[in-house]
Amino acid sequence: MAISKEAFGKQVLALVGPLHGVARRLTGNDTDAEELVAETVARAWKALGSLESDAAFRAWIFRILHNTFIDERRRADARPQCESMDSEDPDETDAAFSIFEQMHQPFLLWFSNPEQEFLDRLLREDLERALATLPEHHRVVVILADLEEFNYREIADTLGVPVGTVRSRLARARGALQKLLWEQARAYGLRGEAATGAAEGRVAGVPCAKSGKEA
Amino acid sequence: MTKHEIDCEKALQQIFQFIDHELGGDEREAMQRHLHTCKSCFSRAEFERRLKGKVGELRQEQDAPEVVRSRVSRLLKTF
Fold this sequence. Notes:
The complex is a heterodimer. Chain A has helices at about 5-25, 30-45, 55-75, 90-95, 100-105, 115-120, 125-135, 135-145, 150-160, 165-185, 190-200. Chain A is mainly alpha-helical. Chain A has two domains: about 5-75, Orthogonal Bundle (Rna Polymerase Sigma Factor, Chain: A); about 90-200, Winged helix-like DNA-binding domain superfamily/Winged helix DNA-binding domain (Arc Repressor Mutant, subunit A). The termini of chain A are far apart. Chain B is mainly alpha-helical. Helices cover about 70% and strands about 0% of the residues of chain B. In chain B, helix 3 (about 25-35) crosses helix 4. Chain B starts with 7 loop residues before the first helix and ends with a helix. In chain B, about 30% of the residues are buried.
């Protein structure tokens, strides 16, 4: 599909903030983020023929950003076995990790809610640190899904993977993120009495308690 | 159990798709019915929704730094 130079410029300028935001989180610094955005725009202009429709512009240019990032990193990294953006997390325990499962106390009912207290205490810097620590293939899906609010189809198009892969990778990424948050909380002593009690008081395999609560 | 009812195991499998608004009509309705009657899964969904919201708050309503915007503007003029 061909769009005019003017239309291309407008679309790019409308997205330069989000592009830079994602680039900043991928590269971890402003200098590399600036380079990544500039290279992305240059590549996008050259690849304009591959744009299928106006509606696909956002996922299309983010895909170019993502591919450019991978290319640049591979070029900079002499190690042949560097982490692949396409690789899956070998540690499946991260995928299943859930702060809720660690903290939820099904029989405390209304007078205590440790998992919600955990969220109340969670600081922006805790989340920033955990997100920055995630492996790149996990970090990027969380950024696209939760920060940029892409739907699964757009994430799939951006990363060049099937929607099913997005679904499973996002679940693993969120598990890994929660595990990092949990470990940070424990390291900083923020787990608190409630969490300790939750761990001690847990009843494995307790089925759902019935509630009339409206969803 | 009718074909449109789900148990906790299925609900937990679909919890992220639910909070991401990625479940289709029947699946979404089945999940909503389950959450109406299951306190544990309801609480889990609320927790995941709140955490997703907190992660989303990291997105600053940012424009790119002026140096980046200027560079991109200059670049566009060269095309």
